[in-house]
Structures are given as C-alpha cells and as structure tokens.
Design goal:
By secondary structure, the chain is an alpha+beta fold. It is built from 13 helices and 16 strands. It has helices spanning 2-28, 91-119, 136-139, 159-172, 206-210, 231-235, 254-262, 316-320, 330-356, 368-381, 383-401, 409-422, 428-459, and strands spanning 33-48, 55-69, 121-124, 147-151, 154-155, 175-181, 187-193, 223-226, 242-246, 249-250, 269-275, 278-284, 287-294, 300-307, 310-312, 323-326. Helix 1 packs across helix 10 (368-381) and helix 2 (91-119) runs antiparallel to helix 12. It is elongated and about 95 Å long.
Length: 460
Amino acid sequence: MMTVLAFIGAIALLVVFHEYGHYWVARRCGVKVLCFSLGFGKVIYRKRFADSDTEWVLSAIPLGGYVKMLDEREGKVAPEDMGYAFNRKPIGQRMAIVAAGPLANFLLAIVLYWIVFMHGVPGIKPVLGEVNAGSPAAIAQLRAGETILRIDDEPVPSWQELRWQLLDKALQQRVVSVEGLSAGGTTVSHQLDLSGVEAKDLDGEFLDKLGLHVYQPVLLPVIGQLVAGSVAQRAGLREGDVVLKANGVEIQRWNELVDIVRSHPGQAVDLNIRRGGSMEHVTLIPQPTQESGPNRSGAGTRKTVGKIGAAPKVDEAEWKALLTEVRYGPVEALQQSLRKTVETSVISLKMLGKMVMGEVSMKNLSGPITIADYAGQSAHMGVVAYMGFLALISISLGVLNLLPVPLLDGGHLLYYVAELIKGSPVSERAWEIGQKFGIVLLGTLMVFALYNDVNRLISG
C-alpha cells in the first residue's frame, strides 16, 4: 500500500507542477484555459469557480494530465474570443507557454534539492575498500583505505557523490584528476583514465568495473543479535556463537555466511559453530523472502532470497565513523541544488542520447512499475529520501518533455522554430504526420519500458 500511495503522490505532484507551469504562463499571456486535468480518462470530479473560465478536473487514470487552451485548431472560437486563442498569440508567447511545463519541473527539483541539502543528506564517507587488480583504479594506483577528497577539483563529500561524479566523467570518456588522503594521512594524487569505459559498462555495477569498492569493516561470523521467533532462534542459535562452516564450506567472514543463507531459500543449511569451549551442529531452513534490489542495469527487481533473522556482532564505533551527513546553509544549499539539477539534467540527456544511438542498452529504460517500486522504497526510507526521489523524477520528466519529439513539449517547440525560420506555421499535413510519428515513437518506448518492468519482475 505504501508503494501505491507513494507512486500516486509522486505522479500527482509532478503532473500538477508541470501542467501548472503551462497554465500560469498561458494566463499571463492572456490565453483562455478551458480545462486543467489531473489524470486521463473518465472524469471523477470537476469544478468551475465563479470567477474562472477554467474547469478543474480529476480523472480516473493518474498517469499524467493536461491543460486545454482555447485554440482554433481544436474547435470553433467565437469572434470576440479570438484574442484569447493560443494559436493567435505571438510565437514568442506560444514558445514560453510550451516551455513553461518542463521549466516548472526543473524549478520543483531545485526547491526539493534545496530543502534536502539544508536538512542534511546522510551518506557514507568516500573511503575505498578493496581495489581490483588490473582495473582502471589499480592502474591509477588508488589504494584501499584511501579517502577520496576531490575529482577534478570538485569536492567529494560522500560515496554517492563519488559515484555520480565518476559517472558524469565516464560519459565524457576522459582522464580525471583524483585527489585523496591515504590511510597514513598523506595527500595523494592520481590520474584515473576513463577513456576506455564503454557505454555498456554504465550500469548498476559501474564502480565495480572501475575496480572501486566502498570500505567496510571486516565482520567476523559471530552472532550478535537474533530476531525473536526467527528461523535462527528457533534452530537454537545463540548470541556469541561463532559460525565455522556452512554446508561444509569454511566461513571466515560474515558476508560469506550471508551469501550461503541468501542462496538457499527454503533449503536446509548445516552450520558448524563454536559455543564457548564446545563445538555444536545446527541445521536451519532460511525463510524465503521477496526482496527488491538493483539488477545489472541498476533498475529495480524482485527476487526470492533466504533469511534467518540473525545479525553479526559489530563494532558500532567503527561503523559510525564511516557515516557522514552533507548539510549546507540556505545560500550554499541553493547553489548546490542548482548544480545538482543541472548535472542531473545533463547526465540524463547524455544517457538518452547514447540510448538513441544504440550505445546504451534499452534495458536501462524504466516504466511505471519500476518507478513505483523506487517510490515505495524511498518513502520507507523517510521524507528526505522521498524528496530526493521526487527531485530526480521531476528532472527526468522535464528532460523527457523537452526532447524534439512530436506530442511532447519539445516537439511543439521544434514546430515553432521551423515557423520562425520559414516565416509561417508548419502545414497541417506536416503537423499530422509529426503527431502520428510521435504516437508511434512514444508508444514503442512505453512498450519497451513496460517489457523491462515485467522482465525485471520475472527474472528477479
């Protein structure tokens, strides 16, 4: 239920902002707006205020919305209303009205990121763990335990920001300057060559392919906590038990035990443990659990894994030392929100361009099911995470709508640029052909996106 509500709330907010951008500028330009609809299809609720020409509508399918303006191309217009028709307005005003929707989405993203940056963004410090031998990171002589400080003189306050900055540089396929602090406290510099990174590498395992892994304190296979009534507790495990073997495989670290448990949902797992000074044998059956997570493309999937309800013994001080919170004052937060919005827009546009050119797989395209899954996950993480998700989707919506594809705002802007060049509106025939092309193209993209969604659900 949380996922559904988070998804509907996200769509409603983003659509309202987008369409209100069109509405607000249209009214400023003296265009009569006949209808403002949230959703498509059957009308559920409608309202017209006494002092307004606009009918406000709530429709049954909450996957979009529209603003209907007075226009001679869509019906007869009374002579006295000609001055209020969209198609009679100067081309500059028409372009401003069309562009206002995507711009409203960018403005919303700026405001959301501004709030997020002032509140504080929790994250993980950019400390390197194991560096894969022979990888670009190893060739650049990056070392485990090193804290990344800057990339091309841009500060790197968290691991999330490290990934984002390197993704942006990898799209440019160039060498970047990396400044870090070694485990011994010495400032070091590296030249990380990203020119060999291919578009197919820009997926959920992007940093792994560069040879970079976030540092994690070593967790020994010692039971630290048990969930009451869990599989582990019912099987007889106790806090302080040391797991030596699982299904005959020697266990030296906690993650090795986790891998075996997760890969055996509903199947017996035999554990050899040390309890105090004695050796014990425990057999348990991990509980099959549906779990959401990223696949190789970085998109959401669901898969069945095993869980036993046990947690390792941890050094809380060591783990807390790896956490950070990126927080700014109002002015700097606004600067950071502007930077983040621009960077995200540019990267989204580059990824779309590479997708069109066939350099990035269409499997990276996500539909409403995946977006709904992410909406639910971010909502469960809290208001700040959900606001960050809304900002990202708002930017994506703004970028998508500015693409020069008929039916989209960018397609309309393309028509108006052609009108400026030729000195007269494009022909009705050209308009109709463009609309049909746009329908086919967007329909194909929607099919691809839905196919990817369903495939992720099935493949897990």
